[in-house]
């Protein structure tokens, strides 16, 4: 019985740590006063990267969007994306295709 409880607890700890590793991105820790404003960041996302923003949010030390980008193989087609940005300069830290 004790082995089962210990094994179950260990499994939960491993699962919890795995979900933390898979979520988010590793953005640098930058003081908020050094971040681009949300409006400036949104302008950069649309104008410089060409992404469509469905949802914009702050995730830990990152700006994050759920949106769409045109496919490289066919610019008339769009694919869903999740992108994390360095808030101090707007660089892409992590990009995931959602299709």
TrEMBL record:
Q: Where is the signal peptide?
A: 1-23
Which keywords label this protein? Signal
Any keyword Signal? Answer: yes
One Pfam entry name: PepSY_2
Domain named PepSY: residues = 9-96
Q: Which organism is it from?
A: Thioflexithrix psekupsensis
Q: What is this protein called?
A: PepSY domain-containing protein
The UniProt record lists the keyword Signal:
yes
């Amino acid at each position: 019985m004790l082995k089962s409880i210990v094994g179950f607890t260990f499994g939960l700890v491993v699962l919890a740590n795995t979900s933390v590793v898979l979520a988010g991105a590793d953005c640098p820790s930058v003081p908020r006063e050094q971040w681009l404003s949300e409006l400036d960041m949104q302008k950069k996302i649309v104008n410089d990267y060409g992404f469509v923003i469905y949802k914009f949010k702050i995730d830990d030390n990152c700006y994050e969007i759920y949106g769409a980008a045109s496919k490289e193989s066919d610019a008339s087609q769009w694919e869903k994306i999740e992108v994390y940005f360095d808030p101090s300069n707007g660089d892409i830290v992590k990009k995931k295709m959602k299709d």
